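Interim report to the steering committee. The following record documents the input for Cytochrome c-552/DMSO reductase-like haem-binding domain-containing protein (442 residues).
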Amino acid sequence: MTTSTWSASGAAAFAACVAAAATPAFAAAPADWAAIPVQTVTLFYPGQVDYGWLRSAEHKRANAKVREGEACLSCHEGEEAELGATLVKGGRHEPVPIAGKLGAVALQVQAAHDDANLYLRFQWKTQMARAGQMHDYMMYDGEKWAFIGGPRSKEAVRSGAQPPLYEDRLSVMIDDGKVPMFANQGCWLTCHTGMRDMPGEPTKEQVQAHPLIGQTHKESDVRKYLPATRTDEAASWDKTRAPEEIARLKEAGAFVELMQWRGHRSNPVGMADDGYVLDYRLVDAGKGPFGWNVDRKTMTPKFMFDPAKVGVKALALADVGNASKPHALIREDNAVAYDPAAGWKKGDVLPGRLLSRADASGSAADNADVRGEWADGQWTVLWTRKLDTGHADDDKALKPGGVVNVGFAVHDDNVTTRFHHVSFPLTLGIGTKATISSVALE
Ligand code: HEC
């Protein structure tokens, strides 16, 4: 994040906050985080271990217990680092290991709250010696624009033909007890055969032809979903329940909240996205912080950097990781309409994504005070969330004295999909005893 970027949107948000007066959110966040206890959670690399495998005979002597709903931690407590070290190397659960990838990430979590908000502080060391804040970049080759780089799992990146360029992410899942088994088995309920980068992936055409996933959601790949939204015991991706039944589950709150802080697509505007998992990984109602900066018909960018504000109209690949250069296009801050006649040179780079805090709205814009700073090899992310967002349709309300189930994940060092590190499910108590207990502020 460039300092100027945050100070502009941060100052605006602060001014709006003071003007509203009813929500002294910024002012009340812990002034001294050193006084708040730190819980270290070991996140580990899960490979392709999914819902189906955990219930199969290959998960020796554990399959029946897992079907009955037994907690992963009742057998695996303290084994996270060991599991991660084995799985990341490759083998039956990882057919395409990423050379040198670490098996575990130590995530430090602190929590505090007042009457209005929950304040979370996360810290973790990155494997790469720079912030992962590049995503979907496009490069001009002298004639046309094309996407450049990608996650380390991509063939062209593995072979060295393209650079690793992908944002870091921190994901938080919340269940308030309404999703059967989430307390014991956490995110493994959402991870299935057939999803992106998992075994048994259907073709794009098969997904597009599916009445719910393809035709209603307009998706062409399979992402997270909950077993209760499927009709068969294996919870197959294509055996979806009728839309009315899924609507009833949503009404009853039987979804998992899933929020993601993103190094490129949300952090530059001081936000995290806000979504939920039910029959698919879905976005809350309204508009989140990011969209595309690409005209798909002409394959040209829609916006470029405003040289009057940031000194350049484009970047070069050599600027990646240079903190004095911008790395994200923000509509209201540093962008102007793309000018095809601006004298583009081979090697010019522009983000393929356009961010906007000003255009974000509704429940999808609830995480409007989330700021990450990368320094000395680690991210520190400060996350303010209203205890009750007022959007019960797609959010979980937190109450002082209450406990919710949570799961965390970090996507570290240019990775996407399953190439992340995850936690077993834990509990978060708002001023009550739990794995992570939030401290009540005066
Ligand atoms: C009743 C005890 C028990 C429960 C509950 C249990 N496991 Fe296991 N798990 C085992 C045992 C035993 C093994 C070792 C099996 C083997 O070596 O093949 C194992 C193996 C694993 C492995 C290692 C696979 C490998 O190839 O290295 C993973 C990952 C795993 N379990 C994840 C989970 C998750 C996630 C859950 C919760 C959804 C869970 N387990 C629940 C007993 C359990």
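The pocket of heme C is lined by residues 49, 54, 59-62, 65-66, 70, 72, 74-76, 83, 86-87, 92-93, 185, 188 (CB under 6 Å). The committee is asked to note this result when reviewing the revised timeline.
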